[in-house]
Amino acid sequence: MKHNAVAVVPAAGLSRRFGEGRNKPFETLGGKPVIIWALEVFERMAGITEIIPVLKEADIHSAMELFSQYGLTKIRTVAPGGKERQDSVFNGLHFIRDKNSVVLIHDGVRPFPESRTIRRAVRALADCDGVVIGVPLKDTIKEIEGDIIRQTLKRETLIAVQTPQVFFYQPLFEAYDKAMHESFYATDDAALVERNGGRIKMIKGDYTNIKVTTPEDLAVAEVFLKLRREEA
């Protein structure tokens, strides 16, 4: 990585689909919290100089103790979360001091980012404003209105987008700043850069880079982890 990279890791969601009273980033996966798996990947990568988790304020104190326990030395501060994911990421961006850095934004409930894929994404940033990681869809996708199918979309033109998404700091911050001032919300970071005229490239990701949204996803993650350990 020619530029220093900072990983912003939003993990301040309400976990509505996971179950009442449960906190997805801190659910146990293979003996340690879900979020720790991803943070350890960033900790080991030489080009990443800082990690900024974004957490609910009620979690910050206990999380800092947890990060220290796991030896995560690149975490020097934790940003407070906002009402929506976009608010949380924007809060995290304000904590970045190096305005010439590359920024990786990664969902704290995706425990298995691959370092080789992250390095490819950073290299691909050379001739664009942002890079997203995605995988081809396996299922047929239909657009509906209510319970009526409107059309069947061309699967070969669609991807399932993952994180981390990678950007240079300045175009990312400008896109976020504009969106926040205009109260425009999107479901991923690249959409804001696209809206601001940025050019986004896609590279192929890994099907194991799943997002833990429901208890069933956690069970799948356990299977992936078991396979990894058997292959090691």
What sort of overall outline do the alpha carbons produce when their principal axes are compared? globular
The CATH architecture can be named as Alpha-Beta Complex
Given the helix and strand composition, which structural class is it? alpha/beta
Stretches where pLDDT falls below 50 for ≥5 residues? none
Number of domains: 1
List keywords for this structure.
7 helices; single chain; 34% helix; 7-stranded mixed beta sheet; 24% strand; 232 residues; alpha/beta; two-stranded antiparallel ribbon
Q: What's the structural blueprint in terms of helices and strands?
A:
Layout: E1 5-10, E2 28-29, E3 32-33, H1 34-44, E4 48-55, H2 57-69, E5 79-80, H3 85-93, E6 102-105, H4 115-124, E7 130-136, E8 142-145, E9 148-152, E10 159-168, H5 169-181, H6 189-195, E11 200-204, H7 215-231
Helix pairs in contact: 3-5, 5-6
Structure description:
By secondary structure, the protein is of the alpha/beta class. It has a single domain (5-231), classed as Spore Coat Polysaccharide Biosynthesis Protein SpsA, Chain A (Alpha-Beta Complex), CATH 3.90.550. The protein has seven helices and eleven strands. The chain has helices spanning 34-44, 57-69, 85-93, 115-124, 169-181, 189-195, 215-231, and strands at residues 5-10, 28-29, 32-33, 48-55, 79-80, 102-105, 130-136, 142-145, 148-152, 159-168, 200-204. It has a seven-stranded mixed beta sheet with strand order 5-4-1-6-10-7-11, with helices on both faces. It has a two-stranded antiparallel sheet with strand order 2-3. A hairpin with a 2-residue loop joins β2 (28-29) and β3. The longest helix has 17 residues, at 215-231. The radius of gyration is 18 Å and the shape is globular. The relative contact order is 0.17.
